[in-house]
Amino acid sequence: MKTKASNLNNIFLNNESCYNLEETVDKLSGEFLSANWKISVVHDLQETLHKNGKEVLPVKIIEICKPEYSGRLLEKDAERMYSPLIADELKEM
């Protein structure tokens, strides 16, 4: 029987970067900005977990948003359920 975790492998793409983590984050950030996406925040999960007594490999999450898309989502009541996905972007506007 398949578990929920194994099903997640079908919805995520995994591409290994030829750059180190910081260079990868910088290059991705530059690409997002040049495509007119907004970077709300970059989360350093290794640092956050270290502060809570957990040791993990380096991992960062880049939150991006395009206000024109999030604005359209919030205009429609039926699609407001997606608002948690764009909440951080709205704080920065």
Largest sheet: 2 strands, antiparallel
Average pLDDT:
84
The 3D shape can be described as globular
Helix content: 40-55%
Q: Span between N and C termini?
A: 45 Å
Low-pLDDT runs of 5+ residues are: none
The helix/strand class is: alpha+beta
| Structure annotation, total helices | 5
**What value does the Rg take, in angstroms?**
16 Å
Total DSSP E strands: 2
Q: Order of strands side by side in the largest beta sheet?
A: 1-2
Q: In percent terms, what proportion of residues is strand?
A: 5-15%
Overview of this structure, please?
By secondary structure, the chain is α+β, with helices and mostly antiparallel strands. It is 48% helix and 14% strand. It contains five helices and two strands. The chain has helices spanning 4-8, 21-34, 45-51, 67-75, 83-92, and strands at residues 38-44, 60-65. A two-stranded antiparallel sheet has the order 1-2. Helix 4 crosses helix 5. The radius of gyration is 16 Å and the shape is globular. It starts with a helix and ends with a helix.
Short description:
The chain is α+β, with helices and mostly antiparallel strands and 93 residues long. It contains 5 helices and 2 strands. Strands 1-2 form a two-stranded antiparallel ribbon.
Q: What's the SSE blueprint?
A:
Elements: H1 4-8, H2 21-34, E1 38-44, H3 45-51, E2 60-65, H4 67-75, H5 83-92
Antiparallel strand pairs: 1-2
Helix pairs in contact: 4-5
